[in-house]
Write a structure and sequence with these properties.
This protein is mainly alpha-helical. It has 2 helices and 3 strands. Helices cover 52% and strands 7% of the residues. Strands 2-1-3 form a 3-stranded antiparallel beta sheet, with no helix packed on it.
Length: 145
């Protein structure tokens, strides 16, 4: 029983995990397992110790609330950041794809323009050496020499 350790020391009382030390009257009592926190009629939270003597229940509750709050805030921030990054990367990919399509079309038009210029140049050379048939008279007489 925990009451055996009353009026001794906190460390001796808390060696048994089912015991609770109360600093107001230096008593070792059984931990009330039916409730999560010991009721204030049994011992106030600032004077109650369980597990270790150097921290009281108020500090444990505050520390747990802070840790839980930090975890929730960090999870929320991570979720928001990931959602924002996905939207941003999708829009960035769409922009890059659009830019590539524009460049591809520009290259195609430049290629067609160069092809047309080459054809004109070749036609001039053919005309110069008499190899080009007249477009006015496609049926010309073939002369054997």
């Amino acid at each position: 029983a925990c009451s055996v350790f009353s009026q001794k020391s906190c460390e001796e009382c808390l060696k048994n995990v089912s015991c609770l030390w109360c600093y107001t009257n230096n008593t070792c009592i059984d931990y009330p397992v039916r409730s999560i926190l010991p009721p204030s009629s049994l011992c106030s939270l600032s004077n109650a110790r369980w597990g270790v003597c150097w921290i009281n229940f108020e500090d444990v509750i505050i520390a747990m609330a802070v840790v839980a709050g930090l975890i929730l805030v960090s999870i929320t921030i991570c979720c928001c950041y990931c959602c924002y990054c996905r939207k941003r990367s999708r829009s960035r990919l769409d922009e890059e794809e659009e830019q590539l399509a524009r460049k591809r079309e520009e290259r195609r038009l430049q290629s067609l323009q160069r092809k047309h210029e080459r054809k004109l140049k070749h036609d001039e050379i053919r005309k110069k050496y008499g190899l080009l048939q007249d477009s006015d008279n496609p049926y010309s007489r073939f002369e054997n020499e």
